[in-house]
Amino acid sequence: MKRKITLKINGKPRSDEVEPRLLLIHYLRDVLGLTGPHIGCETSLCGACTVSLDGKAVKSCALLAVQADGREVLTIEGLAANGQLHPVQQAFWDEHGLQCGFCTPGMIMASRQLLERNPNPTEAEIRHGIDGNLCRCTGYQHIVNAVKAAAAKAGA
Amino acid sequence: MIPQSFDYSAPATLKEALAQVSSGAKPLAGGMSLVPIMKLRLAAPEQLVDLGRIPELNYIRKEGSELRIGAMTTHYQIESSPLVRADCALLGETAGRIGDVQVRNVGTIGGSVAHADPAADYPAALLALGASLKLVSTGGERVLAAAQFFLDTFTTALDPGELIAEVRVPVSSGAGTAYVKLAQPASGFALVGIAARLVRAGNRIGSAAIGVTGVGPKAYRASEVERLLAAGKPTREAALHITGGIDVNSDLHASAEYRRHLASVYAARAIELAWSRTE
Amino acid sequence: MGTTTAIRTKTYVGERIRRKEDPRLITGTATYVDDIQMPGMHHASIVRSPHAAARIKGIDAKRALETPGVVAVFTGADVKEVGPVPCGASLPGLRVPQHSILARDRVYFVGHPVAVVVATDRYVARDAVDLVEVDYEPLPAVADPERALEPGAPAVHPEWPDNVAFTYHQEGGDVNKAFAGAEVVVKQRITSQRLIPTAMETRGVVADWRAGDKALTLYSSTQIPHLLRTLVAMMLGLAENRLRVVAPEVGGGFGSKLNVYAEEALMGFVAMRIGKPVKWIESRRENFAATIHGRGHVDYFELAANKDGTILGLKLKLIQDLGAYHQLLTPAIPTLSVLMIPGVYRFQNVFCDIVGVFTNCVPTDAYRGAGRPEATHGIERMVDILADELKIDAAEIRRKNFVRPDEFPFATATGLSYDSGNYAAPLDKALEIVDYNRLLEEQQQARKEGRLVGVGISTYGEICAFGPSPATPAGGWESGSVNIDPTGKVTVATGASPHGQGEETTFAQIAADELGIDIDDVVVVHGDTAIVSYGIGTFGSRATAVGGTAVYFALQELKKKIGTFGAMLLDSGDVSYRAGRCICNKTGKSVSLSEIAAASYRAMKLPPNTEPGLVSTCFWEPPNFTFPFGAHIAVTEIDRETGAVSVKRYVAVDDCGKIINPLLVDGQVHGGVVQGLGQALFEQAVYDETGQLVTGELMDYAVPKATMVPWIESSHTETPSPVNPLGVKGVGEAGTIGASPAIVNSVVDALSHLGVQHLDMPLTPERVWRTLQQHGGQA
Q1: Residues of A numbered 115-134 whose beta carbons fall under 8 angstroms of chain B's beta carbons: which are they?
Q2: ipTM for the assembly
Q3: Which end of chain A is more exposed for a tag (fewer CB within 10 A), N or C?
């Protein structure tokens, strides 16, 4: 039986009837057309589906859409404000923190969470902070550089 | 990738939730274990009751000599709680070693403990801390020591219709504690996880409590090691007894022989680290 | 006409230019296959074999078909008209099993597609998969290639009971003489374990059939849209011009999407049968079980040398685990290992035998490096074993055997001609960066303290820029088209279909420099057979060396035509072109590229024998491969108690010829090194004795995480390739090829004083701990 959910997506209210088993990632991608977050596994290890739920980075493939009822979801699509890239997005671009780009939306959302909680992380802390996001292209080094650069910019 | 269909409810009170659970609904806590296994269709509950909207299950507070933690408190809340850091550092250290940040943001202590994965992190700490669990059902409540709770792989003392409502942890003043873990490289679960809590008596160990996870079919207290440590045996020697009497797991990532060895090494490391933190 | 525009003096080639493709990727607005939505789109989900070998006695889809929303279920019996999954490699005597897109009467590996369910909704399709009842009669299976060669082993294909798909021999020089005269011979069995490529985006296909046009469009996450079009058109019996293939944004490939898969033709078949668009997205579990794996070697090496360390000859018996079928290039991959087995060394006597073995596993095929990591791992391990045997320093023995700078082009014993090189240069640089002599002293000190520290060197050579067409299975050229539109903006179309490499940026750098224009005025398009006339693809570190060169030559043609129009407009016989303007050398008057473009399309007046428009296409055929090289050094320390390896330093000095964009080259090196390090330390695809895939999920297959990899100190030497005018060689696979021997040599070095000669990958803590136990080195 479908349930009605009402939530805020990237700042805008939204309401839908969904099957309880509908995963949040499928709700975002297939129902709302927010295809920035990706699906890279089914065991919540890869982190490509990472979005922010009430300000916390979560893996949207391991949550049901009904669990997000009444909450606020921010996806990669909602990160840039007024045409300005978020500093973490900008740093990923500047530092070549991506190649195929598939992990990137999740990686950026996880990095954003990291910098919110720890504005000046060490290399080890950065690596720990993105441990829930797999990247097969970059070897992580330019991602580490990007997070450092975003931190430095924010601190400047 | 897609779970089977189920009915779903998200009550606002524990009372409503218990009514559902008593009629056979499967409780959904953070879902960090349950949802993936439903997606792989290794579990297919017909009815889910979501505990995520019950505010009375999410808290960390101090009552007397205990920290009381609501079952729906997330790993991140525990990891980052000043109260936990001050009064039960071991639990915070353990919470910080679970999964990854996204999992810690959603996964809950009650969910993890109820799931009773033999490689989960919390059980080692809860056993070492002498924690207890408040279990509730429509018929009332009971408090059970963590040591009596974990029965076997994915098997606990929870009765049908019963939920974990609260985790109670004695405040560890003066003890030195540590949680060390060798993570399975793919899953991040503990190949071996050792929680140690030591109380100093002068220049020697007065008492020791050692919880072990990842090694056997369930988490356990290494009582022989504890006894030897309290009797003044050297750490390395005592640690060799860490798997005494345990049917040690064997899998792709560590044979039983190697795991037994790792457990003794990590036990010694946990004890040494905890000792360095005693006051 | 004017002379006011400032002359642009900046060039892009050689600069750290950030990528043009990134804005869409960092904002979540790129379109991967699963992002495509179409009106009336259906969803497919595939029933796969849970058995490694079984006879199919019957399939009952009744319950699935009764499910509301399910529109069709197709099985092997329904797809008999569809041609087999193609193998593009041909070897003498190769046994090629019939490879139907859905199993007929038998299944040969876990994950083998048996049936496809089509429904209006992806959830319904998935539910209905569980309702298709397949009656299997399980059969004995064999998953280990050496076991498969034993007498009495289960036959993967009953028609070939010895499980041998092919044997292949290659030799050069006189190896018997070399071994007879050798003062020392070292031998070692070395494995390169099966790996799972694990592109972060799994495979996926959307098929859209327009019956009115008899036209099919296939959106597929592929590295080779044009080859896919040719081969799928043949499989489906479609005229090739009725099939369009689009590779949209592709989320990584590493060779795993350099293929033609059953599901690609199957979705075309489904769309044509149901008359609606259909989407299939592979789950990670399916990806692990049914997308190609890499490596899968058991190699028996013998190396002959003189006591001074001079290598005289090499023998190799190579057993290749092929899996149950040949995918596109499966049997060709080990032949690349043999080609590159001499590595960067001068010896001229080589004797190699390959046995290609069927097993009840998913096929192996090209995975980042494709045969060369196995070869490099083997030769670099053997050189270290020889050095250890002769007590010669690992750097010294390499220097002694390097091909010398004045010997290029160098003819190898395996018939290749190495284009250019200076093999000592990156080694010297790497040794300097790590401060080698001090490092060796520190190692001695550490040993005295009871610590296990190792220094591992690998000096690799590789073969890239595939390649001359006679030496590649499907043509080795690449296409490049440049189209300057009437307003003077430039579109470059390349047949090299990238999936993360950044060709939209590097090719734009080349075009912007050649035309003297701003890089923002260049757009690079790719990955659509309706836009790019034909092409080969991005793999084998070929995109820039071959595809970039095609673009370069197309630009040269176009510049001639620009000059012709410019001369006409300036009414001058003496013009030159620079910084986006055609200039009269006598008067100094000039016209801009956009003015020339406008005139060429308006065509009020045309130069003699000149057509309107500014378009040029080049299909460039390379005269040779290119041969990048480099030196990697890993410093490791072993935890004596647990066997855990930690990488303390990792230095990579790579020579990939001229560098177009250092930022992107570093990215390729980092990613490559981490994949090689993944093989060395963590990754292994494990099948049990019954052919079940034990590492069936990311829960058990350890793709390196950020916390598991070291900082990589990357630098370069630049030896231009004479094969192409850009001087580039290729860098996509270098890191992977260099890394695994550097790490393993380092760990073995840490243990060599205990008498350890070799360790097979992955160097899990348990494996190292067991070795320590056997050699009395555990704490």
Answers
A1: 117, 129, 131-133
A2: 0.98
A3: C
